[in-house]
Amino acid sequence: MVTRSTIMDTNSFRSENSADLDPETRRLTDKRSQVLGESYRLFYRNPVHLVKGEGQYLWDAAGNKYLDAYNNVASIGHCHPAVINAVHEQMQMLNTHTRYLHEGILNYTEDLLATTPDEIDRAMYMCTGSEANDLAIRIAQAFSGGTGIIVSQESYHGTSGLTSGCSPALGSGQVLAPTTRVVPAPDAYRIETNDLGEWFAQQIQMQIDDMKASGIKFAGFLADSIFSSDGVMPNPPGFLKKAIDVVHANGGIFIADEVQPGFARTGDSFWGFGRHGVVPDVITTGKPMGNGIPVSGLLAKSNVLAAFSDQTPYFNTFGGNPVAMAAAQAVLNVIQEEQLQAHSQKLGAQLQSELTKLMDKHECIGDVRGAGLFIGFELVKDRSTKQADKALALDLIEELRNTHRVLTSVAGPYGNVLKLRPPLAFQEKDIDWLVGALDQSLSKLKG
């Protein structure tokens, strides 16, 4: 029996589709099956064989050009020259670990901390978001003296032992830690309440009370402030504040997982949490930080970090190495020099407006929501009942890939929300490509 994961298997290749593949794709999928572990997954019923990327575009082995509407790994654009040059130059000089002095890590840290609230004044570095969140959980436990972590119902925070135990999106095959508690996602589309912030704060308090009743001391709340895996739930701005007040009132800390909403993605703020008027105790980041170079970070209030760092030495061999720091510095420079936060805000608003117009033509679009270049496009069978249409969503992403060469994927507990999250290189001319593809694909599928 194969265990299905909500984030890994909703949009994925199945071996039963092998007969429909062209010979070369079939050869590659067979080889993957032979040499790679069975845990790996490929996107799409007909997997894409990519060989080149530039900005917001990708090319497959047959020379077909695609619009990337999903990838935040290459956050400022595939193969950005500034990152390529920075990495190349540093590789020619030095690459080693952080137990030697090097100015690169210090200069970058000063620049990065300048983007955070004043209370955040320390940084540590790793290679992946999983490692950053793993350390953040350890810090929460050291600071609070507890072990209990609260996450949202479909969240994903990593693949380590600690983080997978706090990642419901990994599915039934990954059992949550006994000290983890789950709150419903703050779904403004489906939850009927006059005050989403108060409702969400109550959900947090209920789980803290449940921990206490079970003899578990609360340590912290770990959340991605746009609730990406939950189906993209960014609004209304500010709704998180009451929940964070509850977290602090109960002796816990707030860990802002900024792997997805950080680095100018949401437009309104450099960091996703900034839209909510809160100051996290710990910030974690990963993928977008190095534009494809494995680097991640943890930023924290010094008094919170001290509970861990004053007692426990921490060393990550490749975390913060000179090449990774050169890549990260280049990314930060590009975001600031090219004013990508303002670009994300402006273009995201334009894209969301055009997507919303499609609702007049297609009854199957239940909701369009987002912040900056991070948009959820929800499909339903009936607007009045808001019944999710997962089958349509999966057929839609296949039609987008096969006919219109647009790449994206789905999110949310029902698998019916298209997560539109292109590289920040996305331009106004690309809106027509994406919106037109969605319009034509829905007309074909629902016609």
From TrEMBL:
<dbReference type="InterPro" id="IPR005814">
    <property type="entry name" value="Aminotrans_3"/>
</dbReference>
<dbReference type="GO" id="GO:0030170">
    <property type="term" value="F:pyridoxal phosphate binding"/>
</dbReference>
<dbReference type="Pfam" id="PF00202">
    <property type="entry name" value="Aminotran_3"/>
</dbReference>
<dbReference type="GO" id="GO:0008483">
    <property type="term" value="F:transaminase activity"/>
</dbReference>
<dbReference type="InterPro" id="IPR015424">
    <property type="entry name" value="PyrdxlP-dep_Trfase"/>
</dbReference>
<comment type="similarity">
    <text>Belongs to the class-III pyridoxal-phosphate-dependent aminotransferase family.</text>
</comment>
<dbReference type="InterPro" id="IPR015421">
    <property type="entry name" value="PyrdxlP-dep_Trfase_major"/>
</dbReference>
<keyword id="KW-0663">Pyridoxal phosphate</keyword>
<dbReference type="InterPro" id="IPR015422">
    <property type="entry name" value="PyrdxlP-dep_Trfase_small"/>
</dbReference>
<feature type="region of interest" description="Disordered">
    <location>
        <begin position="1"/>
        <end position="25"/>
    </location>
</feature>
<feature type="compositionally biased region" description="Polar residues">
    <location>
        <begin position="1"/>
        <end position="18"/>
    </location>
</feature>
<protein>
    <recommendedName>
        <fullName>4-aminobutyrate transaminase</fullName>
    </recommendedName>
</protein>
<dbReference type="InterPro" id="IPR049704">
    <property type="entry name" value="Aminotrans_3_PPA_site"/>
</dbReference>
